[in-house]
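Structure ticket #2291
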Amino acid sequence: MRVAAFASGSSGNVTLISTPEGALLYDAGLPQRAILAQCVALGVTMDQLHGIVVSHEHTDHITSAVALAKRYNIPLVATAGTLQALHVPDTVATMVCCAGRALQLGPFTLLPVRVSHDAREPVGMSIRAAGSSVTIATDLGDWDDALLEACSDADLVVIESNHEREHLMQCGYSASLKQRIASRTGHLDNVQAGNFLAALAADGKTRTAWLAHLSQEANTAAVALRSVTAVLRYHQREALYRSIIALPRQKTIVWGEAQRSVQLNLWAE
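Resolution: structure written out below.
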């Protein structure tokens, strides 16, 4: 299984999960042209997609989801609440997923997990195929044992590390936006992400971690990595991660069967 993050952050979120038997898009928060170009660069065509999974209805996750589904006759996979919020036309095929209930989609086994975010019915997702597993959980203000369980088999964990709390309080956002982001239905900060990864590593399994959805105003890759690594070091769990990468806003990062991540320059003109 190959996992490729095309974009991560408030300007757009798209992840491609592919195997020789087919592929999935997880969120589609970029223009169609950008998504198609990135897929083609990785050798994946739209007729190979078994579905477009939508985590929740916020714009940075759905920009092209309905349009791509309609144009290429690809089913949209989301919770009932998310599908209702999207106002999906009858001409688009849909599949309803429910937290805690596994769903088979081509070669992929999907297990949605409920997350705490200010959307209609948001979920994270554990995706298994070809002997590997990835769990993606972005846009959540808190984590719990259910999310830890969903990540238990994961070889790659994609977890939100949105902001540094001190930077958030000092940035130019309005007071109401700061309050929303820092709330239990907002976004995880770096320390929360580090504590989650430390708790996950208590099982002794070696994994790769991607830090996702970094705030442009209240975080940087260097700050996120420093804070998360400090928490893991405090809990003596740093060695259980093969690598920890802070995802860029628009640059393709790929994880493959060798269980390592590489950065590809697919965004060059």
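Closing remark: The longest strand covers residues 22-28.
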